Amino acid sequence: MKLPVLVRQALNQAGLQGDWTLTPVGGGDTARSGLLEGGVSRYFVKQHRNPLLLEAEARGLEALAARLSVPRVVHCYSASEGGVLILEYLPIASLTGSRQWIAAGASLGRLHRVEGPARYGSHPDNFIGASLQSNADHSDWVAFFANERLTPQLQRARERGLPAQAAERTGQVIEQLDRWLPSRPPCALVHGDLWQGNLGQVNGEPVFYDPACYHGDPQVDLAMLNLFGGVPAAFYQGYQAEYPTTLRYQAWPVYDLYHWLNHYNLFGGQYARAVDDTARRLLTTR
């Protein structure tokens, strides 16, 4: 297809001259994605009307790159009309078999075992999907998750018409967060948007992508990996081998609630039931 003007401008600024073709690639709900090809060169490109979203993704990939295999950032272009992110092209496929899942768990464990700064957040603000995500730092994890995660999403959800019962129950969860969350869990760099669609493999080696990084409780990544279906036991075998830790299952529904609220705010009413059910289950947990 003919190159969009923004993509052409991004290529020029990056010094990537030549005749390029762009093939749209499906998947993803936030940015338009495609495969750029020119001779023997191939890149993965993302376009979005909000350049700040792609700048944030680039920062997240660069932060993770020290400890995880991620697509290399080639160039990030920003203009008033939108942004373009040019990434290394990787032929990413789904994880299959115990060996690959063990390797994925071990990779994530190596990321999580490294203690981060003393304060939670401690990363430039970014986006979870298309929603702004504040990473203002806090010394207390309960305060961080209440003020920078659940409360802003609940406010947006109320404005979008979240049913009163679901909103009331979610508010009660926020008021009682210390029932499920510790005030000082380990503080590590987390992927932040680690559902199974943002994890794959290349030649059998795990690759992570589309992050929404910040410093926080490593269990947020484990919870989200199970949001749409559990991961194989082999994953935890690899994870625990690198980072032996207790899986604090009681916290996972709180972390799920954040994502269900965000899904409601981005995609609409079909997620109101998940918000209400998750909040109700938390409130009935002893």
Write the layout of secondary structure elements.
Blueprint: H1 5-14, E1 21-25, E2 32-38, E3 41-48, H2 51-64, E4 73-79, E5 82-88, H3 97-112, E6 126-128, E7 131-133, H4 141-159, H5 164-175, E8 188-190, E9 199-202, E10 205-208, E11 214-216, H6 219-225, H7 233-242, H8 252-267, H9 272-283
Antiparallel strand pairs: 1-2, 2-3, 3-5, 4-5, 6-7, 8-11, 9-10
Helix pairs in contact: 3-7, 4-5, 4-8, 5-9, 6-8, 8-9
The CATH topology label of the largest domain is Aminoglycoside 3'-phosphotransferase, Chain: A, domain 2
CATH A-level architecture of the largest domain: Alpha-Beta Complex
Domain count: the total is 2
Alpha-beta content class: alpha+beta
CATH class wording of the largest domain:
Alpha Beta
Query: How many strand elements?
Result: 11
Put simply, the count of helices is 9
Distance between the termini: 57 Å
Please mark out the parts with pLDDT under 50 across 5 or more consecutive residues, or reply none: none
Q: Can you summarize the main beta sheet?
A: 5 strands, antiparallel
Helix content: 40-55%
